[in-house]
Design a protein that fits this description.
alpha+beta; 3-stranded antiparallel β-sheet; 17 helices; 14 strands
């Protein structure tokens, strides 16, 4: 899905440029609120003609179907037309399009033990995918609408979701949709309209058309599982309160009148009850108002990052901080340490040892090993850990039972290889070089053990220091990260 790929950094830069072009796409919608405001502006009092038809269209699998060369050409045209009106970060149009082609042609991903490169379409996780899709669809729809005899009264689109109001006959509408279907061989559409039914859904809004009047309410898809932040989940109380309040506000915002608002709120109450929220929280969320003013001194305090345990513990810590008079505020950082982070991974199988992978590929091709075979010291002792990154590890030597604790953000196998190189060459002022010198090379690496996993550099160094404090390994030359009060 192009998440954390080698092109991610470049994608972020190009995305920043392309996003500036979206204001030049007339049909583009930022969110659901924008389509409601446009309908109110186009049809005062939400009244349309009695024979008006509200139509929604959706592109089938847009991202995998986008032709890369045509999409990049469309981006180049928009850049040429509005180059002086945007910040291109000093890049020329050709440089931007070249970078875009490089990003889209080098979406590399791994499935099992095999590596693939995507040759058609755009990866959904790529940062440039949304603006690229919006601009490509802009040129596609512009060519269709400009050639049509009858045009829609209102036409808006959110990426691949289209809504428009049709004031002509049903037969003319069918011809108009057929032109969209024939516009591009790789792009196919599905559609719904109010010619035979009075209600139609668009994103999270359900529109009703009755005798030329439009009303709308909150829409929940039939496929919606009903899951949200559960009341008994290990989530800070202020996060749950903010979630409930914003959910009710969203229901009110997406309702056209009091009757529709009551229907929308009933959907919210049903969903919250399914997730364990008491009735008192419903009343609180439905009546609570947003703060008009913020504490100006709150964000000037120093953030104290702590793991979340419970609201009771949070209140005790806040009380102590208030009594201390220190300018501190509590911040919960759960980006890395979440249940999802523990259970969900992007790799279907662990990465294979590069030495074993090379041997396997040579064997599959029916060739013989040329020259001296490579060795992986780590996998010879503990198979399957040489490709692990962001770890605190323990190395133990055999004869002297000496221990060494270290940390690395890189692959563990590379770090162990460096230690063994220091030992063989008896490098001075290195832990393994000094250890081998003291024991006249009569030392052999016996085990490799991963103690902790942590990608954050500071947190990993702290964990390393705690392990060194606990075990006092004799091979280490230093005690690692300086700890206070440990």
């Amino acid at each position: 899905a192009a998440c954390d790929s080698p092109c991610t950094g470049l994608s972020i830069i190009i995305e920043r440029i392309l996003n500036q072009l979206l204001r030049f796409v007339p049909s583009h919608l930022r969110n659901t609120g924008a389509i409601i405001e446009d309908i109110k502006s186009e049809f005062p009092g939400l009244n349309v003609c009695d024979n008006s038809i509200v139509v929604t269209m959706d592109v089938r699998a847009l991202y995998p179907s986008i032709p890369i060369d045509e999409a990049v050409e469309c981006v180049g045209k928009v850049l040429d037309a509005h180059y002086d009106n945007i910040d291109t970060l000093g890049l020329s149009v050709k440089c931007i399009t070249d970078c875009l082609i490089f990003i889209l042609r080098n979406n590399i991903f791994r499935f099992g033990t095999k590596t693939y490169r995507q040759i058609k379409g755009v990866a959904m996780g790529n940062q440039v995918a949304p603006p690229l899709a919006i601009i490509f669809m802009h040129y596609l729809e512009t060519s269709v609408i400009s050639q049509a005899e009858q045009k829609p009264s209102l036409y808006r689109r959110y990426v691949d979701n289209i809504l428009f109001v049709w004031r002509h006959t049903v037969q003319k509408l069918k011809l108009f949709i057929e032109k969209f279907q024939r516009a591009h061989t790789d792009i196919a559409f599905t559609h719904e309209d109010t010619s035979e039914k009075s209600n139609i859904s668009f994103m999270d809004v359900e529109f009703h058309v009755d005798n030329g009047a439009i009303t709308y309410e909150l829409y929940e898809k039939p496929s919606d599982s009903g899951n949200c932040i559960r009341f008994n989940s290990a989530t800070p109380g202020h996060v749950k309160r903010a979630f409930v309040t914003s959910y009710f506000e969203r229901a009110k915002r997406l309702s056209s009148n009091i009757q529709m608002e009551k229907k929308s709120i009933r959907k919210v109450v049903t969903k919250l009850c399914q997730n364990g929220y008491p009735r008192s929280w419903m009343q609180f969320g439905n009546t609570r108002k947003k703060r008009q003013t913020e504490d100006s001194h709150f964000y000037q305090r120093i953030a104290l990052r702590l793991p979340y345990k419970s609201d009771q513990l949070d209140n005790k810590i806040k009380k102590v901080l208030a009594q201390s008079g220190l300018p501190l505020r509590i911040v919960h950082n759960t980006r890395r340490h979440t249940l999802q982070g523990v259970l969900v991974g992007s790799a279907f199988m662990p990465l294979e040892c590069p030495v074993q992978e090379e041997k396997r590929m040579i064997s599959e091709r029916g060739k013989q090993q040329q020259g001296r075979p490579r060795r992986c010291v780590t996998c010879e002792i503990t198979p399957g850990v040489c490709r692990q990154k962001g770890v605190v590890y323990l190395l133990r030597s055999g004869e002297c039972q000496g221990e060494y604790i270290g940390e690395t953000r890189r692959e563990l196998g590379e770090h162990v290889k460096e230690h063994m190189s220091q030992a063989r060459h008896l490098e001075k002022d290195t832990p393994w070089g000094d250890h081998w010198r003291r024991h006249n090379r009569q030392v052999k690496l016996e085990s490799v053990t991963i103690l902790d996993r942590e990608m954050d550099n500071v947190n990993r160094q702290i964990r390393e220091s705690i392990r060194i404090k606990e075990r006092s390994p004799i091979i280490n030359n230093n005690k690692g990260y300086r700890l206070m009060g440990v």
